[in-house]
Amino acid sequence: MTTSSRQRGTAPPGPPTPLSAPASATAAPTAPRRTAFAEGFDRLRHAAGTEPGRLRLIGALLALLVLAFGAAGAWQMSDRATAADDVLHRSQPLSAGAAEIYRSLADANTAAAGGFLAGGQEPAAVRERYENDLETAATKLVTAAAAADPGSPAAATIAGLNRLLPQYEGLIERARANNRLGYPVGGAYLRAANAMMQDRMLPAAQDLYTKENQRLRADYADATPYPWLALALGVAALAALAWAQRRHYRRTNRVLNRGLVAATAASAAVLLWMTVGHTVARAGLDSSYEHGIRSLSVLHDARIASLNARGNENLTLVSRGAETKKLADGDIVDLYDYDFGQEMKALAAGLAHAETLADDSAGREPVRAATGNMKVWRERHTVAREADDAGDYQGALDKVIGGDGDKGAEPTGECFDSVDKNLGLAVDHEESEFHRAAAGGRDALGGLPAGAAVLAVLGAAGAVLGIGRRLSEYR
Amino acid sequence: MRVRRLRAGLKGWGGVGAMAVVLVLTAVFVLLPLARAGGTDQATGGVGGLAEGVRASAHACQDPEKRSLSPSGADGDTVKAIKSRAHPRLVIGVDQNSYRWGYRDPNRSGSSELEGFDIDLARRIAREILGDPDAVVFRAIPTNQRTEAIRSGRVDMVVRTMTITCDRLRQVAFSAPYFRTGQQVLAPRKSDITGYDDTLAHKRVCSATGSTALTQLTADRGSGRIPPSTDISVTVPNQLDCLVRLQLGQVDAVVTDGALAASQAAQDPTVELKGRRFTTEYYGVAMKKGADDLVRRVNRVLEDYRGDGWRASYDTWLSATLGEDPEPSRPPSPTYR
User: Fold this and answer.
1) Where is this chain compositionally biased, Low complexity type (chain A) (predicted)?
2) Considering A59, A140, A456, B306, which has the largest number of Cβ atoms within 10 A of its Cβ?
3) pLDDT tens-digit readout, A411-448
4) Which of residues 304-333 of A touch B (CB under 8 A)?
């Protein structure tokens, strides 16, 4: 009927034509052609007119709501559990690995400069330190490469570092060979290696560290937000169940319907579990960030500052005043000694910050010890500089890298080693703090996705059964 | 007549530009002594420096090595100021990268002191002025910062294979020459480069920033003495860094003073000097302009040194790299102005 009138309406204006044969041919099959949806809707409307129909409808909606709640809960919680697990087992180790790559590269460079200062045949301990550092850097680079997505910026950075590392080693070996022969071109190779490290490798390592930290923060951001969708559906499901039971009570004067009560209990359990579990997990993860990651980041920066300070202290003696810097007030100072002062300031600030972040005595102690080492380092450095400025280069050298051992020279190198060792202890402590807190957080989410799914299915079954029982009274 | 030719050659804006340059130069030379006239003692030194500067620029200065002051053993203000320091020590700018000139032998046990021909001379100056060859603080200085280090007062003098040139005479004062050398080409033995000539075409040549070698290369490439296709863009802070570039295959040849080129060749048996010296240059001790008493004092030391010490130091440090015969390296007997 509607179809034919519409057809007529679209026809060009003209004399009214009687219902022609073709027109009736199209109209005839149209009248019964109704979509399945419209048919179903009509049947539903018809059913809603009767109590059994209404009951069926309510049962279906309740089951659907509870199932949707369970599905959303399982999905959102498994997302968070995965992110929490990534924090613990992927992004934090990678961030720590990147920090270690930077540290070992800088340490290798410092060891190389120290070995050069010591003379033609470098001490075995220095050589060992250099080799351990490069081995660490190479191993951590492999780990980082395995975890980097192909074609990502991090992968490009890692590839760049992998290319530069053997070139750097080549320059250092040439420096060594020439140094052994007594040729000053060895020193020129050392300068070239140092320039490659400072200008290309360390910036790349810093870049990698920044990227891994971004990934860590992203994983934290994925693990900690509240599962709002699941929570909203849970509340909706509980409200619907309450409404259905109230309706049931008003119509039948019966207080309890076992199926609906079971569905309510299951939904409430899931909602409670989810809220408590997530809150505990969030607290654990937040604590692992506050007490672990932040401390680790500050300690890493302090360690780098102490390494840079040591490197600059060595280079002051290697370059012997060849590089200068003009300050804002017009004073001309030795570039490396100036940089040493800046790095020591950064180290002092970092240590003070790390001490305020440390939340127990086990974390504070190594930081305090490092602060003490740093103070001695500063005092000895002043003595060494005074010797050098007075023309006693050998005396300054003894005060920085140590003499032949039994001289009691009290070199600054000892202080640097102690600072580094104590900072290493502090890092170990904070890493275990991080692991404890983050593992606790992750475990609070354990079983939640599966639990939410199973309980939701049980709840939905309860709702259907409860309504079915009431429905059977109409047969 | 020369002026007329010059004017004829410069037309339009070129002429205006040249006049502007002349005006600026005149203003600088007029104002310079005014600025210095504050201190009465410095005034004479300032005028002396001015006269020298004007002469140096006016008559494309000839024989810069013959322009030092006559020797004297008297202590003037500069020497007295050094002696009255808390620790009376000469602060001397040296090189620590020039094999056999100023370097540290890493295999010498128990000593990290610099040694070499320049270091011997530096210690001799300290011995004669302060009475102690160890009354020295050595400061290593990159090639392009030698004049700046003297002018800023960071060092009292520079003994660092520094060639006496007219350009540098405008900024620092030099002693009489203490060594004769000249620019030379260094290249791998197997290279087809034969010297400072057309075989440098399409070759990459390394030199130190602020060195006479770089000045010479730039001028000669412009004038056509070496082919315009020669690539002289690689410059390094220190001539020794050129040997690193050569060994790493980043350049094909090095141009530096023959004395230093020989030091480089001594550190690598696969490279050699190619062709003869193509300039004649003299090393001098550089000091601050106006420190006339110190210049005269150093010239007195050099007079003594040429008679006793120079030959022994040559034999110790340089005969192995430059040859048994010291005569090509011996400076001419000095002419003072």
Assistant:
1) 20-29
2) A456
3) 999 999 999 999 999 999 999 999 999 999 999 998 89
4) 319-324, 332
